[in-house]
């Protein structure tokens, strides 16, 4: 395992999750998250992919729940494909926040050495 690959793997995961390739039941997940963020404190939605759908805000739309379940199952395969041991990372949290400049997407985790990893996926999509 190479620790230097963690940031790029987290970035790739976050970018894929909020991209237009992530749609369920003919709905873009990034649109669902954006709508949810408008009604949340600090205009932010956090998704903990270790906890899965239980980390979603109450009343989350069914397509978002399906998407989180799919990506949660796929995440270990993505990490392994990029030479990152999934067991060496703590909870992986995606934060989607609306700012004046547009959406801000951050993916965070901590490795087994205690080193925090915080990757800005995009300030605007």
UniProtKB/TrEMBL annotation:
Which protein is depicted?
A: Uncharacterized protein
Q: Please give the superkingdom of this protein's source.
A: Bacteria
- Species: Roseateles oligotrophus
């Amino acid at each position: 395992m190479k620790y230097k690959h963690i940031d790029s793997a987290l970035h790739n995961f976050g970018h894929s999750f909020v991209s237009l390739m992530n749609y369920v039941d003919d709905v873009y997940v990034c649109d669902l998250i954006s709508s949810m963020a408008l009604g949340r404190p600090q205009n932010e939605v956090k998704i903990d992919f270790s906890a899965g759908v239980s980390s979603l805000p109450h009343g989350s739309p069914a397509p978002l729940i399906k998407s989180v379940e799919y990506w949660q199952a796929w995440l270990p395969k993505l990490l392994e494909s990029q030479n990152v041991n999934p067991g060496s990372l703590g909870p992986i949290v995606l934060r989607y926040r609306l700012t004046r400049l547009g959406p801000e997407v951050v993916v965070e985790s901590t490795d087994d050495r205690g080193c925090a990893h915080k990757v800005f996926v995009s300030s605007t999509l």
